[in-house]
Amino acid sequence: MNNIRPLEGVKILDLTRILAGPFATMNLGDLGAEVIKVERPGVGDDTRTWGPPFVGTESTYYLSVNRNKKSIAVNIKDPKGVKIIKELAAVCDVFVENYVPGKLSAMGLGYEDIDKIAPHIIYCSITGYGQTGPISQRAGYDAVASAVSGLMHITGPEDGDPVRPGVAMTDLATGLYAYGAIMAGLIQKYKTGKGLFIDCNLLSSQVACLSHIAANYLIVRKEAKRWGTAHGSIVPYQAFKTKDGYIVVGAGNNQQFATVCKILDLPELIDDSKYKTNHLRVQNRKELIKILSERFEEELTSKWLHLFEGSGVPYGPINNMKNVFAEPQASLIKLEGRKKQFLCTSLVRGVITRNAAVFQSLFTHEVLHNSLIMEMEHPTVGKISVPGPAVRYSKFKMSEARPPPLLGQHTMHILKEVLRYDDGAIGELLSAGVVAQHETH
Q1: How many CB atoms lie within 10 A of CB 300?
Q2: In this structure, what DSSP letter does residue 365 have?
Q3: Strand 382-387 vs strand 373-378: parallel, antiparallel, or unpaired?
């Protein structure tokens, strides 16, 4: 395996802040791109202040989505700051911004301005609602876009109020769309030698992610509703309360439903005429779910997990964060055959209690093994851990990540090494407040 990552040599000029844009550029940085993050002197990315929690003076929110970037603090309201951005654009491959449509154009940094000096540039604009239209000038925030796009309408208890998803899924989906679009833009540039403009927005991204819910309406005019943890078209497929927690179980076909009934010791349901097919189970949802719910509440979560193991039925506990990052991966234990399967299954599901501490040490790096945790040494707060990349590749591996930058940490480095400014010119810009360098760097 070599360690040449696919985007090494690609430079990204990142004028985004908060979540959708930074998430996109962080993923590009994971693949080897050099990401130059442009921030406001003295203030920086909005998320630097979004806390608690903080570690030292750093917001954990900011730390979660800004690894593998360099920070240059530039006042882009100053003509000299605009000049710096244009000079950087000329030597970069990608320009990413998330300003309200027209705002950067008014500063001389719109696509039409950058295209003149850098026709090779892939210019990705991330907005709330697109470049034109009656609400295009509104600021794009996840909760509002989640509401307008319909996601909030279908999220929450069946008989309750709309609920905002626990993380900013509309922002994150938009970041992933932008990430993919930029990759497509790079391929297009290598084919044609020319750059292009990418219009990416929260509303379009979330509506696209409505998937079958949107198709249900568009094709047969079926209006959507909230189902809590349940599914509108599959029964059972939801969370069930146990004696001490919750378990999610799904039966996507009749065979799986029969298996669920056997595990729950409710064999009489298998041949019940009301539940013979999924269509019938959907029609008789309330009665069936009541029967299943009462049975699930009779046992501990660990007991159900043990009984469902190896059944072929999709199932799993509702984990809190502690349990998410303690979830063992069985493949790390060097045992063979049934002994390995039994030990791993038992330990994971909490059935074995004696000697658990002895075996637990075998699992201490399981999440790291999957690259789900990334550890970094931050320059002011020491070692930090953040969620790592979700995808792994056979021919290269992610190198050790650089920690999220301090505000203006790389200002002088970028001006000197990328733009070849001399010390005198840099000193003048610092004195005039056009740029700022972090005092510890």
Answers
A1: 14
A2: T
A3: antiparallel
CB contact at 8 A, 114 and 94: no
Q: Which of the following is catalytic: 30, 115, 142, 171?
A: 171
- Partners of 59 in the β-ladder: 54
Residue 177 parent element (H or E): helix 169-192
**Helix, coil or strand: residue 157:** coil
- Residues 370-424 pLDDT 10s: 568 889 999 999 999 999 899 988 888 876 789 999 999 999 999 999 999 999 9
Nearest to 352 by CA among 343, 361, 341: 343
Per-residue confidence band for 325, with pLDDT thresholds at 50, 70 and 90: confident
Alpha helical stretches, state H, 31-165? 60-64, 79-91, 103-106, 111-117, 142-148
Cα separation, 411 vs 435, whole angstroms: 7
| Angle, CA 416 vertex, CA 413 and CA 420 arms, to 5° | 150
171 tagged catalytic: yes
Sign of CA dihedral 180, 186, 187, 191: positive
Angle at 21 (CA atoms; ends 17, 22), nearest 5 degrees? 70
Packing angle, helices 169-192 and 20-30, rounded to 10: 50
pTM of the model as a whole: 0.89
Q: 128: burial class by Cβ within 10 Å (0-12, 13-18, 19+)?
A: buried
Q: What is the DSSP letter of 363?
A: G
